[in-house]
Write a structure and sequence with these properties.
about 290 residues; globular; 11-stranded mixed β-sheet; 11 strands; Rossmann fold; 7 helices
């Protein structure tokens, strides 16, 4: 496990479909990192960008072989933590639930509605109970920097948006899409949860920058979303996504000031220390070792 300097940025980038691959790094290496939570989506690619350490992991694996419900989100976050990452920028393709969010625009998500059903959504479990706050699920500092990077790269970005996370892999029915709009959802996707929850448990500030690729299925008189449409929009905008990551790296302050999220676990664990199971303690060494010593 890499020792992290909290005053030095080390950005973990979790890339969605085609959005993070191909960004050139200095001193680039591809490394397999073992996780105590099973197999991650694949090796990490790490190197230097604008003088800072960046570590990338492809959420769906090489060639997009892993469907949203089968991504090992715990292993991916655990691996990034083991690499010494201090903050996480997630890039995702998203569908729009609002007229003012057309394909090609970006959204710096600030809230989530979690409709996923069958995913391991916590590092903690029987024998060691932890409760973290998710009231404000993204890091505002990181989200603001990401939004500014889109603007600097010539893109259009919306600085707030509620992301509805669905199980997938199918897209929404029209009735579901309209229901999510009525709930207050602005965009929709299949991967932000439990990713954001786990990043918070691992004390990693997290921001999600979503590229709008489609209108989901709520618009009358239009065909529903399909994968070919999504891939076409991504292909047309992938250069902007890459430039945004480069602009984000260049704009990071020289010194990383501490974030309250760095100490999320200070008061989260409520199980009596005498009952902590050794096996779970070993599993949690990377994500929660700071408070389990």
């Amino acid at each position: 496990m890499t020792v992290t300097d909290p005053n030095t940025w080390h950005i973990g980038v979790i890339g969605g479909t085609g959005l993070a691959g191909g960004i050139e790094l200095d001193e680039a290496q591809e490394i397999e990192v073992a996780s105590a939570f099973g197999q991650s989506s694949g090796p990490v690619r790490t190197g230097i960008l604008a003088g800072l350490r960046f570590t990338f992991i492809a959420r769906h694996g090489a060639g997009h072989a892993i469907p949203p419900g089968d991504v090992n989100y715990r292993a991916n976050i655990d691996v990034l933590k083991r690499c010494g990452v201090t903050d996480v920028l997630a890039l995702s393709a998203i569908g729009s639930l609002r007229e003012e969010l057309p394909p090609g625009h970006y959204v710096a998500v600030d809230q989530f509605i979690d409709c996923t059903q069958s995913r391991s959504n916590s590092f903690f479990g029987p024998g060691l109970v932890g409760h973290v706050s998710m009231s404000d699920p993204v890091c505002p500092r990181l989200a603001n920097l990401a939004a500014a990077a889109v603007r600097a790269s010539g893109g259009t970005v919306h600085e707030k948006g509620c992301y509805v996370a669905i199980e997938g892999p199918q897209f929404s029915t029209r009735a579901e899409s309209r229901m999510y709009r009525a709930w207050g959802g602005d965009v929709i996707g299949m991967t932000a949860m439990p990713e954001a929850r786990l990043a918070r448990e691992a004390e990693l500030p997290y921001a999600l920058l979503g590229m709008v690729t489609d209108w989901d299925s709520w618009r009358d008189g239009e065909a529903g979303v399909d994968a070919a449409q999504i891939l076409a929009v991504i292909a047309a905008n992938v250069a902007l996504a890459h430039e945004t990551v480069r602009a984000f790296a260049a704009a990071l302050p020289e010194v990383r000031e501490a974030s309250p999220i760095d100490r999320t676990l200070d008061h989260a664990i409520i199980t009596d220390r005498a009952q902590w199971p050794p096996q779970l303690l070993a599993q949690l060494g990377a994500v929660a070792g700071r408070v389990l010593k």
